[in-house]
Predict the 3D structure of the following.
Amino acid sequence: MKLAWNSPVGPSPDCGHAEHCVLKSGGRKTFQCRCRLQTQLIAGTLFQSTHLKLSVWFLAIYLIGQAKTGLSAFALQRQLGVSYPSAWLIQQKLMQAMVERVTRYTLDGDIQVDDAYLGSELAGGKAERRSENKVPFVAALSLNPEGQPRFIKMAPIPGFNCKAIANWTQDDLGPGCLVRSDGLAYFAGVTDADCQHQVIIAGGRKPKDLP
Ligand SMILES: [Zn+2]
């Protein structure tokens, strides 16, 4: 259905024209310029070209954000009441958006870090950070001035050594951060990338020396 031309609302960033009309089909508005260029409010966003209601997307964002151990496309299909291909596409788009968001920002200010490992041990393998069968990564949390958590970043690294920690600091932290860690000595590598390092020993344990 074509509605009346609107009064000028400012020039279009695409063509510079000011007048447009509003076309409505399937419940979503399309804005058409007098040069016939068309656009929608969701153009250029994650939801561009979707035929699903935005409320379905918002529910998917909530469900994926709340699932501590991840959410399968099957589970998403069940909870959203959409087809499996739709659930799979929603899952892929949201996870890609999360990956791109995480790679775009760095942590700054007061940071707490710890070493973490993903995977299980092979029979006879070494434990924790010496295991051949685990992916080591750094878990870092930035705090606001009140000491409350702001952002968290989990970054896989090739292994725990001062060089890898210095490279990670350059990639993921802003300059001049105060980094607090436990006694793992490799975290002193943050000072090679212009950050300060402070060791906090919990429970009276001694810092671990470098081998
Ligand atoms: Zn135009």
About this structure: The mean pLDDT is 84. DSSP finds four helices and eight strands in the chain. The first strand starts at residue 20 and ends at 25.
